[in-house]
């Protein structure tokens, strides 16, 4: 099986269109998030040059792990609003390093669509089977070592008779000249990289905060996955209701600025992420909601 990173990127965008842009959900007239990324553990076994984890001064491995009670509270609140979106376990580390990842998936998969993004190193026939049995809907594997990994992982999944629709293999073994095979960003100003692989029509408007939420191991919520410096906390799901955080005045300010291209606050002012791939319908819904409230 041969992979081409440009096709892989395009497939990823198109897959998320069905999960994000084609699903607009409301709760008491509030446009809801439909893509929540959870960082269950603050540690990674790899140090990729395009990731802040490559520099221990920027993003040290603390090995702090999210408590299962936090997931239980989140699952309860999502169930209360009949959440139909996606939870993806990824974040600021390698989620498979969390020994309780299977329990977390089991808890949250009873409520909504669940995914996990992994570098594949911890995957074996046994761990793959445990992920599937826990209720995971999609296993996304980023391959960093070379084309030989494609056959390796296809064999692992096939040996466990896993439906091909249950997993995605992403080629990420390319050199800097090819942007390492992904749409690299400076992680909100955290990294300085030459080849960013940004679209030619790059604009400063950004819709991340209109449709997605990033939740750290301790329950802290950030604007999006780009904020590796953890500069802007919008709330904490341990002590606050997730809908209240989502509909807060702090996020309203960012949404109103970003929908017109004003990247003037941290972490946005130093970020070069292309934020228009998804979420336009959500941005319009928020704009309508805010205008009705004024």
What would you note in describing this structure?
This protein has 294 residues and is an alpha/beta fold. Helix content is 32%, strand content 14%. The protein has 9 helices and 10 strands. The chain has helices at residues 5-21, 68-80, 101-109, 125-134, 148-159, 208-211, 242-246, 249-258, 280-293, and strands at residues 26-27, 30-31, 35-38, 86-89, 113-118, 138-143, 167-171, 212-215, 220-222, 233-236. An 8-stranded mixed beta sheet has the order 7-6-5-4-3-8-9-10, with helices on both faces. It is globular, with a radius of gyration of 18 Å. The mean pLDDT is 92.
Secondary-structure map:
Layout lengths: L4 H17 L4 E2 L2 E2 L3 E4 L29 H13 L5 E4 L11 H9 L3 E6 L6 H10 L3 E6 L4 H12 L7 E5 L36 H4 E4 L4 E3 L10 E4 L5 H5 L2 H10 L21 H14 L1
Parallel strand pairs: 3-4, 3-8, 4-5, 5-6, 6-7
Antiparallel strand pairs: 1-2, 8-9, 9-10
> Helix segment count?
9
Specify Rg, calculated over alpha carbons.
18 Å
Helix content: 25-40%
Which overall shape is indicated by the principal axes computed on the Cα atoms?
globular
Mind summarizing the main beta sheet? 8 strands, mixed
Which H/E pattern describes the elements?
HEEEHEHEHEHEHEEEHHH
Mean pLDDT: 92
Strand tally: 10
- Proportion of residues in β-strands: 5-15%
């Amino acid at each position: 099986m041969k992979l081409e990173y440009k096709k892989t990127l395009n497939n990823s965008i198109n897959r998320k269109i069905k999960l994000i842009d084609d699903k607009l959900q409301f709760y008491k007239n509030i446009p809801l998030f439909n893509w929540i990324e959870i960082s269950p553990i603050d540690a990674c076994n790899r140090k990729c040059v395009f990731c802040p984890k490559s520099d221990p001064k920027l993003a040290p491995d603390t090995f702090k792990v999210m408590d299962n009670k936090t997931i239980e509270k989140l699952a309860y609140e999502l169930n209360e609003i009949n959440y139909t979106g996606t939870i993806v376990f990824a974040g600021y580390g390698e989620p498979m390093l969390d020994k309780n990842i299977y329990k977390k998936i089991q808890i949250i998969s009873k409520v909504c669509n669940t995914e996990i993004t992994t570098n594949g190193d911890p995957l074996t026939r046994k761990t793959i089977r445990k992920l599937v049995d826990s209720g995971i809907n999609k296993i996304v594997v980023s391959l960093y070592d070379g084309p030989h990994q494609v056959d390796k992982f296809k064999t692992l999944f096939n040996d466990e008779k896993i439906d091909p629709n249950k997993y995605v293999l992403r080629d990420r073994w390319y050199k800097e000249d090819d942007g390492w095979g992904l749409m690299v960003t400076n992680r909100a100003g955290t990294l300085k990289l030459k080849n960013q692989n940004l679209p030619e029509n790059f604009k400063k408007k950004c819709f991340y905060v209109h449709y997605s939420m990033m939740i750290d191991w301790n329950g802290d919520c950030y604007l999006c996955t780009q904020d590796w410096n953890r500069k802007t906390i919008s709330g904490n799901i341990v002590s606050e209701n997730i809908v209240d955080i989502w509909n807060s005045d702090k996020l309203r300010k960012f949404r109103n600025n970003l929908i017109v291209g004003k990247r003037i606050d941290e972490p946005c002012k130093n970020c070069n992420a292309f934020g228009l791939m998804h979420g336009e319908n959500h941005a319009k819904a928020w704009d309508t909601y805010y205008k009705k409230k004024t």
